[in-house]
Amino acid sequence: MRIAILPASWAPYLMAALRIMTGLLFLEHGSGKLLNFPVLPGIGDVMPHGLLIVTGLLELIGGALLAIGLLTRPTAFILAGFMAVAYFMAHAPGGFFPVNNHGEAAILYCFIFLFFAAAGPSVWSVDKA
Prior knowledge:
By secondary structure, this protein is mainly α. It has helices at 11-34, 50-68, 72-91, 98-101, 104-119.
């Protein structure tokens, strides 16, 4: 006996909503670093430079591409690697457990991006148009 809370026919639309929201949230990190909007704690009025520019561009452009569903698979694959590197560079040195080293978001982004690299954009995307 199969119990379904949501109909299986909703899956493509919920997958698209996950892609869009993940892209918009990721884009927000990049706009905070590069455009200072929203203001990020710890960044403040620091002028973007070096690694901050690279990470901000990856987040801003990659998030926008994911949100609209353009070049979804290659973008998601690159961003998954970026988040894995970010975790090991910025969070792992702070301890083994992600809840203690504040790396939960980096890990979640990494695996969500891996999912979209494999599954593609689903509906409501430029790739599908």
